[in-house]
Amino acid sequence: MLIEERRQHILLLIQKHGRVLVDELSNELELSKITIRKDLDYLQSKDLLMRTHGGALPAQTGALSDPTIQEKEELHHDEKVKIAKAAAAMISDGQCIILDSGTTTTEIARAILSFRHLTVITNALNIAADLSRSNFEIVFIGGTLRKNSLSVVGPLAEDMLKELHADIVFLGVDGFDSRTGLTTPNVLESRVNRAMVQAAQRVVVVCDSTKFGRRSLALIVPPSAIHTVITDNEVSQEDLEALNNAGVETIVV
Known about the structure:
Order of helices and strands: HEHHEEHHEHEHEEEHEEEHEEEHE
Strand order of the largest sheet: 6-5-4-9-12-14-15
Shape: globular
Radius of gyration: 19 Å
Oligomer: single chain
Strand content: 15-25%
Distance between the termini: 33 Å
Number of helices: 10
Number of strands: 15
Largest sheet: 7 strands, parallel
Helix content: 25-40%
């Protein structure tokens, strides 16, 4: 079976059964689980399905699509780890940083555990928990919990951020149109993200290349508010040129 035939077969199975599982596809097609995961990741990048833990579901399309953090955590994991290491290299001991919620920023939280003295401001419940075993000063923003993203949003979170200042904010996003800017499917989340940008001296966007060219419901900030983008080497030349024209530094890993 050719690669394209195999991928079409996977899509037909999703349409028929409402889901596919990596283990079952591996057995049926007599291929490694790694190959199946790569197929699913490719189909996800084309918005043809939605990856989940252990398999995939039919695609959720449109500006309101809002998969859970658990559904996103396995997507492009290797790229996220590389991006996180590059982000950690930008940090110095003694600094105050903001970590937005998301799977890439979660990897940053894991990458900075070797530091000795940091202050970390976050609205992500899972990141605060992961860093609780460190010696860092953790500032957890209050507000209303979004269970999909394990993040805290709302007026309380925005008001608290107005009283804080950080050296760097690291933002993970759902969509990044290199001309329009950063977007997210949740309006409350976009407002908290915008407050994070206003509280930080330097704004660093961390996102794998599949996030480019996507627009979600709510705008966070335009490209002019961003200092640096860290992404993987699958990013298109067109997007790199658009970022350069907007005066945004790009780090490709």
